[in-house]
Amino acid sequence: MTTKGTGSKFPFKTTHVARSSLLIAVFFGLDKLLGLVRQIVIGRQFGVSQELDAFNAANNLPDLLFAIISGGALAIAFIPILSATLEKKGRQAAWRLFSRVANWAFLITGLIALVILIFADPIVKAEIGVVPGFTPELQDLVADLMRYNLIATLIFSISGLVIAGLQANQHFFLPALAPVLYDLGQIIGAVFLAPVEGYQILGVTLPAAGLGIHGLVYGVILGAALHLAIQIPGLLRYRFRWSPLLGTRQRELRQVARMMAPRVFTIGAFQLIFVMQDNLASRLDIGSVTALAYGWLIMQVPETILGTAIGTAILPTLSEYYVKGEDKHFGAAVGRSIRVLLALTLPITVLLSVGIRPLIQIAFRFDAAGTELVVWAARAYLLGLAGHSLLEVGARAFYARHNPKTPLIAAAISTVSFFILSILLFQPLEASGIGLSNSLAFTIEALILLILLSKKFPQILDQKQPLIRIVLGSLLGGVVTFVGLSYLPGGTFVVGLTSLVAGSLIVIPFIRPELRQLVQL
């Protein structure tokens, strides 16, 4: 179903998915913008340093726990079942199911968090642990920061499920706003709690608590609390009533469990890659862990705005198509999403890979060695931008069809691929070799899923002609960007931004058909 925009400003037709994707993209974009602001503040305070390496490494296991229990794992497995319950039994039945799942998620998260809390030291220091290459003092700091991070993880065990519950009700505004509040909490930690000396903004010196790297962790906890709090009005709007239920006899609860089990291993494999990354990076030069974190963040800005936004918005719709048996619409929606993502991510990969250096120099003010580390890490991750974005849609297409096993197999292949590639590349190419291994592994995973989907929906890989046009436009835009960086006079930032804008203008005519398709997703 499509609806016409009102007035002359919106003469085109837009679908519900397109509008939801735009809404999510706007807030995800704001989230990533605030995330960049946060990282710039942190980068200018701590540089590419041991303390920041420790902070970034300490996030990995709490992030893994959140992701497999109540983040990406449960949310994607949960939404199709919750959507079907809403369709067939009504909202109150759906909220009773939600309560059962949330109660189980919180209990399981709490028990695992307790184990990590007790055994944090050996988990960090073991040869196959988080950072075996760090000094003993730095390993102690990682373990300490990890324990604090578990508090935020417990909060997220509920907040992540609330996102799934609201999205199943086709409500995307508050779930999209929640990450923005999470960023604000972290910015408060970075600006007010972490600095030893007052932080200056626009010539005004702000008071500082002097907590150092621990101030960043307190900001994470505050951000998690805000992430949950902002969504409570949404629960009230949809008449949520919490029920202290844990029974396992409900058929839908067992369906969620069956769907979630493979997804836990799938998302666990995804997060395990980042644990492996830091394990290897801890054996390299100081700053390698931080360079990977910044490189990943830079790639994640366009990936989240595009891939995650479209994937998130399309999942409930794909689930409805599957429930109603509308395979033709299902395949068409996936095919359009793939084409749009290729048209947007390939040019961004080329343009940012060419023009990223001056932007990093002016934003973070790292020294020459730190800038070089981050630039090459970012380039390595950007090579996987298209693969990561396509994976967002490919995996959700299988979950919408209640098939979690295929994404699990693809994720296992991706994890093994990363392990082999990173072992081969991390020493000759250092941190950028780890980032490149990540990009190749996830691109392989995305291709596996799309090839398997194409067996039932051949149209989704019918992309040869637009792909040639998109690649040609991307290369021409990259050439224009390179020429601008090489020959334009002026300051570093101005030249870099001008060159990227010029390259983008060259690309637009080549991807105009896909830009039009964006509103028809």
Describe this structure in words.
The protein is mostly helical and 521 residues long. It has a domain at 284-465. 79% of the residues lie in helices and 2% in strands. A two-stranded antiparallel ribbon has the order 1-2. Strands 3-4 form a two-stranded antiparallel sheet. Helix 2 (50-58) crosses helix 7. The radius of gyration is 23 Å and the shape is globular.
Show the helix and strand layout.
Layout: E1 2-4, E2 13-15, H1 16-46, H2 50-58, H3 60-69, H4 72-89, H5 91-118, H6 120-125, H7 136-168, H8 173-193, E3 199-201, E4 204-206, H9 213-229, H10 232-237, H11 251-281, H12 288-324, H13 327-364, H14 368-382, H15 385-400, H16 405-454, H17 464-487, H18 492-507, H19 512-517
The arrangement of helices and strands along the chain is EEHHHHHHHHEEHHHHHHHHHHH
Shape: globular
**What percent of residues are in strands?**
under 5%
Q: Given the structure, what is the number of helices?
A: 19
Unreliable parts: 1-13
Q: Order of strands across the widest beta sheet?
A: 1-2
**Biggest sheet details:** 2 strands, antiparallel
Radius of gyration: 23 Å
Determine the N-to-C terminus distance: 11 Å
The total of beta strands comes to 4
How much helix is in the residues?
over 70%
Q: Round the mean pLDDT to the nearest integer and report it.
A: 83
Which structural class best describes the helix and strand composition?
mainly alpha
